[in-house]
Amino acid sequence: MVFPIVGGTQLTGDFVTNSLRLNDDDSPYLERSLSSPNTDKFTVSCWVKLSGARSQIANIGKRLTGEAGDNRSIDIEQGSTGRLGISAYNGVADSNVAAYNSNTGEGALIRDPSAWYHFVYAFDTGQGTAANRFKWYINGVLQSGYNTTTTPSQNADLFDSSGSGFRLGRAYNTESRYSDMYVAEYYYVDGQQYDHTYFGEFDNNGVWVPVKNGQGAGGAITFGTNGFYLQFKETGTSANASGIGADTSGNDNHLTPNNLAAQDITTDTPQNNFNTLNPLVPHHSIFDAETEGNTGLSSSGVQLRGGYMGSTIMPTSGKWYFEVNILSISGSSDRTGIAIPRFESVTGDDHIEGGDYAGFTVSTGSIGRVFVTEGSSTTETDNSEYVFNGASVAIFAVDMDASTPRVYVGKNGTWFTTSAGSGGNPATNTGYFEANLSTGGSGFSVGARHSAGSSAAQSYLYNFGQPAYTISSGNSDANGYGNFEYAVPSGYYAICTKNLAEFG
Predict the structure, then answer these.
(1) What is the pTM of this model?
(2) Which H, E and C letters describe 300-324, residue by residue?
(3) Residue 259 and residue 303 in one domain
(4) Structural domain span for residue 137
(5) Which of 278, 325, 401, 482 is most buried per CB count within 10 Å?
(6) Is residue 464 domain-shared with residue 378, that is, in the same domain?
C-alpha cells in the first residue's frame, strides 16, 4: 500500500485540516457561475484521494440550452481504467484542446485508494512553444509520453466564456456522471499559468507535500477575477456554515454545494491520511465497498465460504480504536458481521477459511456470537450482549503490543467481556479476546465477513475517525485526531498516518 504523507516533515508545517468527501450515489457537486473567465489561461491544483471507478476533477464551461447532450467545456477526469484524461467538447474543435488518452495503456495509472495524489493542470495557449501551452503535473512530476496527446493551437479558447460555470464533482459533457473521491486544497486560478512549485514541494524524505500559499518555490498566487481557493472550512463570509464551497482566497467566490452535508467535511487529508476499506483487495462479488469514500460496505445473498473485504492500513503494532455504524443486518447467520483478520495471504476472492484467516469476527446475527478462528480451529463465545441490530454502533479496540494481540468489542459505548456480558475496559486490560493478528509482519486488517447458508444482508458505515454520518457527541483520541461517537479508551488512537508514524 502507498501512504504518501506519513509524518509532518515538511518545513512549512501542517496546515491542511479538512477535505471534502464526494459520494457519487448522492449526486454531489459544487458549482459557480464565472464572470468573463480567461478561456486560454488558467490553472487548477488539487489533492485527491480516489474511492471509485471514475471521478470528475475539474469541469469548466457550460451546457448548451436546447441541445441535448451538447456542451462547451473542458473536462478533467479519472477514466474507467484508472488513467487520467482531459477532453473538450464542441466549444472549440476537439483538435484545439489538450487531450491525454485515459483509456489505453499509456500514461499514469491512478487507482490506489490509500494514496493522496496531487494534480496541477496549467494552461496558456498563448505560448509560442506548443509543449508549454498545457502542462500536467502529478505529485510534482511533469507528465509526458502518452500515446495520444493533442496540443492546443496557439491562442485557442479552451471553452466558451459566455454563460460559463465551474463544477467540481459533476461533468458537463455527461451530466449524470459524478465523483467518488476526497478532495483537498483546491485552487482555481483565473488568468495565470502556474507550475507545481507554487503548490507543493519535496520534503526531507523525498515525498511530495502541500505548501502554504506564498511559501512554495514559485511564490505567492494571484487568483484573478474568478479564482478561488477551497480549504473546506468556514470563512465567516460564506453562506454555508459548514464551509462547503467556501472560498478562502479573499475573493469571496464561494461555490454552491449540491447534495452535500456537514458530515461530508472530513479530517482525512494529504497531511494525515486515514484508514479506509480497500476495494482493490480480492473479494467476493457480494461485497460493495465503493461508497462514502470507501467507508461504506454492504453485502447480501448466500456465500458459504465467507467472503471478506479488507482495509488500506494494516498496523503491526500499537493500540487502535474504530467504530462501525450498523445500518442494517438481516438473516440468521452467526458468522456474518464485522471482521478483524490477520492479512497474510490472498487467494482469489475467498481468503477467510482454508488456513488463510486467523482473526476475530463479531456476529451481527441473531445468535450473538464472537468467534476467534486460527486456521481450521475456532473458539466461539455466545452471549445475548453480543447481538447487534440496525441502528447500533459497534466499538472496537485492538492492542497489537500485547504478546498475543487483544481485541475488545462493545456496543453503543459499553464494552463487553468474554463471558459475562458488559464490563470490559481496554484501558485496564479487561474483557479482551486473544487472536493471532500478526504473523510475518502482515498486521491486522478491518472489514466484514459474509458466511451464510441462506440469504443474509448487512450494511455498515466504518468510522476510522472520518465518519460519513452525523456524530452526536464528538470524541477524538489523545492526539486530537478523529471524530467518534464514543470516548476513545486511554492509550488507544485513531488509525491514521500521523498516529501510525508515532505509535505504529
Answers:
(1) 0.90
(2) EEEEEEEEEECECCCCCCCEEEEEE
(3) no
(4) 19-266
(5) 482
(6) yes
61, three cell numbers = 464551461
- Tell me, what amino acid is at 416? F
Kindly report the CATH number assigned to the domain that includes residue 35: 2.60.120.200
Closest CA to 345 of 359, 327, 325, 331: 359
Q: Domain check: are 90 and 191 in the same one?
A: yes
**153 and 299 assigned to the same domain:** no
Q: What would the 3-class secondary structure string for 72-126 be? A: EEEEEEECCCCEEEEEEECCCCHHHCCEECCCCCCCCECCCCCCCEEEEEEEECC
CATH number assigned to the domain comprising residue 438: 2.60.120.920
Instruction: Say what the pLDDT of residue 407 is.
Output: 93
Q: Which segments of 345-439 are extended strands (E)? A: 358-363, 369-374, 377-382, 392-399, 406-411, 414-415, 433-434
Q: Give a yes or no: residue 58 inside a domain.
A: yes
Q: Which pLDDT score is estimated for 412?
A: 94
Picking from 243, 223, 258, 294, the residue whose alpha carbon sits closest to that of residue 19 is: 243
Instruction: State the cell numbers at 283.
Output: 473479494
For residue range 211-237, what is the model confidence (pLDDT) as tens digits?
999 999 999 999 999 999 999 987 766
Residues 175 and 295 in one domain: no
Cβ–Cβ under 8 Å, residues 396 and 323: yes
**Residues 178, 302 within the same domain:** no
Name residue 406's amino acid. Answer: R
Residue 80, pLDDT score: 63
Cα Rg of the chain, angstroms: 24
Q: Is 5 part of any domain?
A: no
For 162, which DSSP code?
T
Determine contact, residues 463/476, Cβ cutoff 8 Å. Answer: no
For residues 256 and 317, membership in a common domain is answered with no
Residue of 129, 118, 234 lying closest to 187 (CA atoms): 118
Joined together, the cell numbers standing for residue 32 give 459557480
Q: What are phi and psi for residue 95, nearest 5 degrees? A: -70, -15
The count of domains in the chain is: 2
Contact 322, 313 (CB under 8 A): no
Provide the b/e sequence for 449-470 (b: ≥16 CB within 10 Å).
bbbbeeebbbbbbbbbbbbbee
* Low-confidence stretches of the chain (pLDDT beneath 50): 1-12, 64-69, 90-96, 101-105, 345, 351-356
How much is the pLDDT for 92? 42
